[in-house]
């Protein structure tokens, strides 16, 4: 092959700055920044509220607690809620990034295949039946998985696997779920409608068991990162990826299954919080590019930070009234997204 | 002794290729040796791309065998085939924005381990491939800002960065101006002279006549003619395969085919 000469000047400057390639150093910098942002979001979330807590007391409470009311509030109320918000923000952002690769569409989000619709039908059905919170979560999870399987079954009926068909099936199933939700809302007794609306808009206040979501977040990220470079190829198209040796059928199965599971758990924990799964991967991509090796962990952290901060704002800005966090993420997300869309005409 | 003979880079044995329920190509037997340039010609829908994908191991053959360096694709360790053969696809959709250098580096994937990042050597190889396609200075540009011809040359550069021994090219001249058409074919001619194998789908009969060592002419109904370019490229055969009468015009040493 010819033309090697011009390459050397460029490479030499990169080598001179250290053994580690520049992209990896940049990745480390971005991720370190996001970890610091996550710590800051947690500190804010744990200290802010009707009962402000100082940083020193916070450390004391986390370190074991002295039986004081502050320690009790932090350990039993604020910490589970902050962890739930962070974990679900991360789950939704990671699932959104995966769906965008799977559907090769930067406008896809975790709900695009009807998962939130299915979860809403399950959760509202449970609320309508007068179920307690555990059963509402169960209903949401069953509904989410049911919608996933329905979309998968319908879109794969003849064994073919096209993006368009998957997307259309998802949109139609979501529309059907929307109609069922509207029907349940109109049939519901007055006293249950508010709880239903809060669930629909997304709400972390009832999240008392955040640890499964956080555990799944760690497992989910750890199980896609080994495939990150293959996902880069998949995002460039099926033929390109396969010609370079990627087992695309297996990889797409992993992405689909994992993306659905992450979304189902997030929706079960905090309801169908909107826009985190769409905006965060999109924003991160605009900032640092589409290399999944960096995009996936960065979007996960950024999603966690965003939802943790938004949830803290939701319970403090108009205290003592608590806003559903989904309203805040949508109110922030819609203008940001429209701005980005106008700025980057594609 | 069979053991002493190096197997051909690519061989098709009694290969039948189908699209839907229709056999577009029946019982094809070809071999590609180092240094060969095989051009596939045929009308639209004759199965050229389908055949190329089958030869690349991306599609199951209806019947028959495809052997890459003597072994079926399934027998190669997963991923190793991408070090032996590379495919230039007919179109390069860009769903997400990426820089030109990132796109060229895609070709290095088969050589990297699961946790590896591209090394400075990989980057040098990608930059050299870009330079060979006249894209020096484009490394930091975003792909959506490129013209159609520049994108095509970028796709070829990514394939060159892959450094396979066998190149399978689906309409490598699409979107290219006259100068770059010849430059690209010259480049692959040099690679073939250095021992690479080249199989490409072309639509320009005269460029095929100029660069091909062998030609496979498909009629789209299962029939085909394969042989040295000189034997296959006759007005009679081409007129039949394309369903349009052609005329041969002598121009010095070479013969030009023009539509009658």
Task: Give a verbal description of the structure.
The complex is a heterodimer of chains A (346) and B (260). In chain A, 76% of the residues lie in helices and 0% in strands. Chain A is built from 15 helices and no strands. Chain A has helices at 5-16, 22-47, 55-63, 69-102, 115-128, 133-155, 163-187, 190-201, 211-224, 228-234, 238-243, 248-270, 276-288, 292-316, 325-343. Chain B is α/β, with parallel strands linked by helices and 260 residues long. Chain B folds into two domains: 2-69 and 165-259, Rossmann fold; 96-164, no CATH class. Chain B contains nine helices and twelve strands. Chain B has a six-stranded mixed beta sheet, with helices on both faces. A four-stranded antiparallel beta sheet of chain B has the order 2-1-4-5, with helices on one face. In chain B, strands 11-12 form a two-stranded antiparallel sheet. In chain B, helix 4 packs across helix 5. Chain A binds chain B through residues 1-8, 10-11, 14-15, 21, 23-24, 104-106, 226, 229-230, 232-233, 235-237, 239-240, 242-247, 285, 289-291, 293, 346, and chain B through 53, 56, 58, 78-82, 86-87, 89, 92-99, 102-103, 106-107, 109-110, 112, 114-115, 117-120, 123-125, 127-129, 131-132, 136, 139, 144, 160, 162-163, 190-191.
């Amino acid at each position: 092959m010819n033309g090697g000469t011009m390459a050397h000047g460029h490479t030499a400057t990169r080598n001179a700055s250290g053994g580690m390639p520049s992209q990896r150093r940049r990745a480390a910098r971005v991720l370190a920044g996001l970890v610091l942002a996550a710590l800051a979001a947690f500190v804010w979330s744990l200290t802010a509220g009707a009962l402000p807590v100082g940083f020193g007391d916070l450390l004391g409470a986390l370190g074991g607690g002295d039986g004081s009311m502050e320690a009790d509030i932090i350990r039993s109320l604020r910490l589970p809620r902050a962890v739930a918000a962070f974990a679900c923000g991360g789950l939704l952002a990671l699932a959104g990034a995966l769906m965008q690769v799977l559907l090769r569409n930067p406008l896809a989000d975790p709900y695009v295949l009807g998962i939130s619709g299915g979860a809403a039908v399950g959760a509202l059905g449970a609320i309508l039946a007068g179920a307690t919170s555990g059963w509402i979560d169960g209903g949401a999870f069953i509904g989410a998985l049911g919608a996933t399987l329905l979309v998968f079954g319908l879109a794969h009926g003849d064994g073919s696997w096209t993006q368009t068909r998957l997307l259309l099936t998802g949109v139609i199933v979501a529309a059907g779920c929307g109609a069922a939700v509207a029907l349940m809302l109109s049939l519901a007794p007055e006293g249950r409608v508010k709880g239903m609306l809060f669930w629909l808009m997304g709400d972390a206040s009832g999240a008392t068991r955040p640890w499964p979501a956080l555990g799944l977040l760690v497992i989910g990220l750890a199980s896609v990162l080994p495939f990150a470079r293959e996902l880069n190829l998949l995002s460039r198209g099926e033929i390109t990826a396969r010609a370079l040796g990627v087992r695309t059928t297996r990889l797409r199965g992993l992405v689909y299954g994992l993306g659905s599971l992450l979304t189902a758990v997030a929706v079960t924990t905090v309801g169908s919080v909107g826009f985190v799964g769409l905006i965060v991967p999109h924003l991160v991509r605009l900032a640092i590019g589409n290399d999944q090796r960096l995009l996936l962990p960065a979007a996960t952290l950024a999603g966690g930070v965003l939802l943790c901060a938004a949830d803290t704002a939701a319970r403090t800005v108009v205290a003592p009234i608590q806003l559903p966090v989904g309203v805040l993420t949508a109110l922030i997300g819609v203008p940001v997204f429209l701005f980005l869309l106008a700025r980057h005409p594609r | 002794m069979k053991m002493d003979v190096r197997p051909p880079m690519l061989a098709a044995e009694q290969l039948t290729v189908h699209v839907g329920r229709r056999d577009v190509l029946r019982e094809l037997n070809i071999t590609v040796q180092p240094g060969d340039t095989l051009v596939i010609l045929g009308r639209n829908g004759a199965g050229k791309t389908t055949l190329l994908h089958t030869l690349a191991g991306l599609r199951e053959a209806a019947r028959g065998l495809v052997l890459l360096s003597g072994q079926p694709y399934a027998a190669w360790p997963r991923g190793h085939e991408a070090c032996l053969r590379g495919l230039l696809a007919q179109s390069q959709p860009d769903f997400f924005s990426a820089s030109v250098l990132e796109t060229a580096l895609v070709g290095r994937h088969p050589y990297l381990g699961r946790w590896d990042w591209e090394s400075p050597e990989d980057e040098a190889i990608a930059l050299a491939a870009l330079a060979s396609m006249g894209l020096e200075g484009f490394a930091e540009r975003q792909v959506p800002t490129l013209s159609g011809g520049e994108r095509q040359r970028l796709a070829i550069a990514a394939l060159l960065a892959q450094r396979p021994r066998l190149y399978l090219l689906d309409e490598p001249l699409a979107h290219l101006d006259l100068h770059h058409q010849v430059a690209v074919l010259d480049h692959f001619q040099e690679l073939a002279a250095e021992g690479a194998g080249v199989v490409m789908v072309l639509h320009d009969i005269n460029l095929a006549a100029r660069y091909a060592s062998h030609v496979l002419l498909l009629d789209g109904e299962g029939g085909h003619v394969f042989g040295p370019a000189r034997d296959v490229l006759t007005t009679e055969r081409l007129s039949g395969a394309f369903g349009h009468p052609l005329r041969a015009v002598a121009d010095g040493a070479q013969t030009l085919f023009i539509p009658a």
